[in-house]
Design a protein that fits this description.
The chain is mostly beta strands and 670 residues long. A hairpin with a 4-residue loop joins strand 28 and strand 29.
Length: 670
């Protein structure tokens, strides 16, 4: 397959064109050696240097992951410029980009090889439930800003696109063992096999367990605490069906439990099971590179008193082709069917179907200038079936017979002003659809007959949030210093922000036959502006460094009052830190590797019930020291939160505090 790639514009951009395959098909290793930097296909479908894509992207390589000393993805992501991580518990972190982070953050789309692992019922990502081992990840692409037109449904603040090693091209075999403080234990095994000349398979499995952080908060009870533990398994198989056709089949399973902070910022013991099956056929034809893909995700999530069963099926087809030497076009069509039972009141179902055509056009105007335009139209049809509890104010399923039609747009221009200077300008319009839970999947009636008591439920009239973003970026290579620096300025607006229900704000007053009712509501608009400074480089023999800082300022414009934003958990002006910064320094030779990471976050606020509580500014230090033995086994010591035994990083006095943890590691790759 890799010999089918054609090089176009090698001197100016080395953008691979005509027969470029999708992320699931290309030989990333060969392309990285050719370009001497990470390569991605995510932005335009064609392989490109990470420094020349028409989006704001950072790529974390497999070597970065190995040297990170991290045991989870949120820790790795926290070291990326502009990324916000709320560490609520030992087994739960919520990840956002440039503010607007919250418990069960709904604005970040997370993919594994093009399959959505973002959970649609609540609209968030459970990072401990991802069914992969860190050692089977080739790269993690972190994309900032709305990118719904390029990446798909609900990519409104950014995208984390996880690419695993392809068993056809990569003989990835690894065993990882960890043990340490907090009774933390971890094991992972990855094995690649080749069944003849046509079929390649990668198998992986792993498990981990640790004690929850010590509970010193009077607000968190023992019943809300669960020591986090997870088991997962994954299979990835690639078969050559012909000279130009390839089939890739992926299946996964995960089963875990942990303490979690739900969207109301209250702790709850949580159990989650996931399984998925995905098949992708890619064929290089006279009409272009055609990809047909389908996958199904099943979710079984249990919070005390509520069990959510969510199934999503997605089918897509796309065609990537060239028009002349300068134009690359991608046409796509996606269909998704998403269904969720109601809970805690059972017997009803909320569902929607989405049809979404899309188009992407990349124009290499000159060897120095490229333009990209992408558009997507999501047409969502909502439906509800089943009974209502007696006492609900809305008891007609026809209220859910509703269509939502919204367009996403991404525009990007990349200009190579010189061999050292690159300018990038982007515009984006993203759409954040209401979650199934917000639309009515949450249905908690009181134990008393109406009008006594109160009902908590969803809102079939909830509008999607629309996010628009503008950004300018200047990148400068500094060869004399063996370094690279960048400056970014951005502005963003969110219209129709979606807020939580609040038991302090009655949305449907009781009548003689109905309860007081609380629902999710749109709360107004919000604007954000900011800048980012980043630099990285190498010093002497074996030293590397990186540093960045991101500033954001959020201003909310509520429909009613600022107090209402706090009640509905969307006071982003108060809960978004102004600054987040990173500093990393490392050194390595053939045997030794030493890496240190400093992460700093300025003060912000969180929620304690219906009130805001302060979270002081904090600084964390993490590090890893490893030594490679002659037989290829690597032994190491990793540590996180090394500066303090305990520290608040997501909530104030009402939350658990992150603990210092040290682990001893033993790993072997071949």
């Amino acid at each position: 397959m890799k010999k089918q790639f054609l090089l176009a514009g090698a001197a100016a951009g080395l953008t691979l064109a005509a027969t470029a395959a999708q992320a699931q098909s290309i030989d990333y290793g060969s392309l990285e050696q050719l370009f001497n930097e990470p390569v991605t296909t995510s932005a335009t479908g064609s392989p490109q240097r990470s420094t020349e894509v028409p989006v704001d992207m950072t790529i974390i390589s497999s070597s970065d992951i190995k040297r990170s000393g991290a045991t989870d993805l949120p820790t790795i992501l926290s070291r990326v410029a502009g990324v916000d991580v709320l560490n609520f518990a030992a087994g739960q972190s919520d990840v956002g980009i440039r503010g607007y982070n919250q418990a069960r953050s709904p604005r970040l789309l997370v993919l594994i090889n093009g399959r959505q692992v973002y959970l649609d019922h609540f609209g968030y990502t459970d990072w401990t439930a991802l069914p992969i081992s860190l050692s089977e990840i080739r790269q993690i692409e972190v994309v900032r800003g709305p990118n719904s037109a390029i990446f798909g449904f609900n990519a409104v603040s950014g995208v984390v696109n996880i690419i695993t090693f392809n068993p056809r091209f990569d003989d990835t075999n690894a065993v990882d063992l960890r043990t340490g403080t907090g009774e933390s234990n971890f094991v992972s095994v990855v094995k690649t096999m080749h069944l003849g000349d046509k079929v390649s398979v990668r198998l992986s499995a792993g498990g981990q367990h640790q004690n929850e952080w010590k509970d010193n908060s009077p607000n968190v009870t023992a019943a809300q605490i669960h020591n986090p533990s997870t088991l997962h398994a994954n299979i990835d198989a690639v078969a050559e069906l012909g000279a130009n056709t390839q089939l890739r089949v992926e299946g996964s399973y995960s089963n875990g439990q942990a303490s979690q902070v739900i969207s109301t910022f209250a702790y709850a013991a949580h159990r989650i099971k996931t399984n998925s099956l995905k098949a992708t056929v890619t064929s290089d034809t006279k009409l272009g590179l055609i990809q047909v893909q389908g996958y199904h995700n099943d979710l079984d999530a249990l919070t005390p008193g509520r069990r959510y069963l969510n199934g999503i099926t997605v089918f897509s087809v796309e065609d990537l082709f060239k028009v002349g030497a300068a134009h690359t076009v991608r046409l796509g069509l996606e269909y998704r069917d998403n269904q969720l039972n109601t809970a805690s009141y059972s017997g009803a179902k909320i569902s929607y179907k989405v049809v979404a055509p899309s188009v992407m056009w990349n124009w290499a105007v000159t060897p120095k200038l490229s333009l990209t335009a992408a558009g997507r139209m999501d047409s969502l049809t909502l439906k509800r079936t089943g009974p209502f509890p007696v006492g609900a104010p809305q008891t007609n399923n026809a209220l859910w017979d509703r269509d939502i039609n919204e367009a996403s747009v991404n525009l990007g221009a990349v200009f190579k002003a010189s061999d050292k200077d690159t300018l990038r300008a982007t515009y984006a319009r993203g759409v954040q659809a209401p979650t199934l839970l917000e639309l009515g999947g949450l249905l908690i009636p009181p134990a008393t007959p109406a009008p006594t008591g109160a009902l908590i439920t969803g809102n079939p009239s909830l509008d999607p949030a629309i996010v628009t973003n503008y950004q300018l970026t200047y990148d400068r290579d500094l060869p004399s210093l063996r370094a690279r620096a960048s400056v970014k300025a951005f502005a963003q607006k969110t219209e129709s922000v979606k807020g939580q229900f609040s038991t302090a704000a009655i949305d449907f007053p009781s009548t003689a036959t109905t309860w007081n009712t609380y629902v999710y509501k749109n709360t107004g608009d919000s604007e954000m502006m900011g800048f980012e400074l980043a630099a990285s480089g190498k010093i002497g023999a074996g030293f590397h460094w990186s540093a960045d800082t991101t500033y954001t300022k959020v201003e909310d414009t509520p429909t009613l009052t600022t107090a209402a934003l706090t009640l509905r958990k969307v006071n982003f002006d108060a809960t978004t830190p102004k600054y987040r910064s990173n500093l990393a320094l490392g050194w390595a030779n053939e045997q030794w590797a030493v890496d240190g990471y400093v992460h700093q976050v300025s003060k912000f606020s969180s929620y304690n019930g219906n009130l805001l509580e302060p979270v002081p500014a904090y600084t964390t230090l993490a590090g890893r020291v490893s030594y490679k033995l002659q037989n290829g086994i690597v032994v190491g010591v990793d540590g996180v939160n090394l500066l303090h035994a305990r520290e608040s990083q997501a909530k104030g006095p009402s939350g658990l505090q992150a603990e210092r943890r040290v682990q001893f590691t033993l790993s072997k790759t071949w």
